[in-house]
Amino acid sequence: MTDTAMTGAADLLAHGTATLCEAWPSATLIDRPLRPLAPGMALAGPALPVICQPGDNLALHLAIAAARPGDVLVVDYGGSLASGPFGEVMALACTLRGIAGLVIDGAVRDSAQIAAMGFPVFCAGLNIRGTTKRHPGTIGAPITLGGATIRPGDIILADADALVCLPASDLAPALAAAATRTEKEARMMDRLRAGETTLQILGLNGATP
Fold first, then answer.
1. How many CA atoms lie within 13 A of 163 on its CB side?
2. How far is CA 14 from CA 10, 11, 47, 108, 182, in A?
3. Which of 5, 36, 163, 200 is within CB 3.0–4.6 Å of 41 for a Cys-Cys bond?
4. What is the pLDDT averaged over residues 142-160?
5. Is-contact 9 101, C-beta < 8 A?
């Protein structure tokens, strides 16, 4: 992905996932209970999908080596919470390689250290149990996570509200639509501060003339 496109992804995230999904309904919600490892974590960038066998983390080591700056590692770990395949050492490796973040439907370890490092991680839980390093998994093939098909290069956006993805070709129009939605909501809030009600602003039944 070009620097301009990566900037566009970051700009899109600045509007928030909720605004994006309102403005661009074709954005796909990753419908899994994956939460930021620490408050304030957010990420945006092109997906590098990874299939990693539960109980083993060789695929993650391979993905970190293969990733380009700005990539988001999106890992299908089979939903397993029985081990923690990603921790502080890997987070540092990702940071030094310019990787934008990790999304995994599994657990991680070293949560305080990763949070202090500021590397964005969205995961399903925590587990300090170790893993083997024998199964290479699959790097760069489409995966299905939370009902969403995620292909290499799809744009991944995650914040405290949700994780969503959209095709890279949707980035520019989605950004324009999100900006329009943000401006509309800013005008609504100005009207609220001026004394109007949401009923009046939205023209809903029961509004006072």
1. 31
2. 6, 5, 18, 26, 10
3. 36
4. 96
5. no
CB atoms within 10 A of CB 204: 10
> Which residue's entry shows tokens 């070709």?
169
Report the candidate in 73, 172, 166 with the shortest Cα–Cα distance to residue 122: 73
Average pLDDT over residues 138-148: 96
- Residue 92 pLDDT greater than 60, yes or no: yes
Q: Measure the CA–CA gap between 69 and 94, rounded to whole angstroms.
A: 9
Tell whether the model's pLDDT for residue 3 goes beyond 90: no
pLDDT at 50 over 60: yes
Domains recognised in the chain with CATH numbers: 3-177 (3.50.30.40)
How far is Cα 21 from Cα 170, in angstroms, rounded to an integer? 13
Can you state the angle between helices 88-96 and 58-66, rounded to 10 degrees?
A: 10
Helix axes 171-193, 3-15, angle to 10 degrees: 30
pLDDT average, residue stretch 68-75: 97
Kindly tell me if the per-residue pLDDT of 102 is higher than 80: yes
